[in-house]
Specification:
mainly alpha; two-stranded antiparallel ribbon; about 5% strand
């Protein structure tokens, strides 16, 4: 990988992980409780990645495990607007980075 793309490699990997977490949350919003195997079948995400994401989401207080599978916490429901706002702010920051970089490179 060249230097220009390596500048954003870590951010890209993190965004792909967040996207996976969101796919799991979307599955839970449609149907819960849901187990690892069913989430994997519905999302196409390998089971080992589902396990990792579930651990992260549980640590963040967004889901809790149950005998039947993962469920969203009341805190997630209460904070969904805040989560959406954080995503919007991040999107604006990335857009600003893009425009700053583009303007800097065009001038050279």
């Amino acid at each position: 990988m060249d230097h220009a793309t390596s500048l954003f490699r870590e951010i890209k990997n993190d965004l792909e992980t967040v996207k996976r977490h969101l796919s799991i949350i979307q599955t839970l919003l449609r149907e819960q409780p849901v187990g690892i195997i069913k989430i994997s079948h519905e999302t196409g995400i390998p089971e080992h990645k589902i396990r990792y994401s579930l651990r992260v989401l549980e640590k963040e207080g967004l889901i809790i495990p149950s005998r039947e599978g993962a469920i969203l916490t009341p805190e997630f429901v209460e904070n969904k607007d805040k989560i959406t706002e954080e995503a919007r702010e991040l999107s604006e920051l990335m857009s600003s980075v893009y425009h700053d970089l583009k303007n800097s490179l065009v001038k050279r």
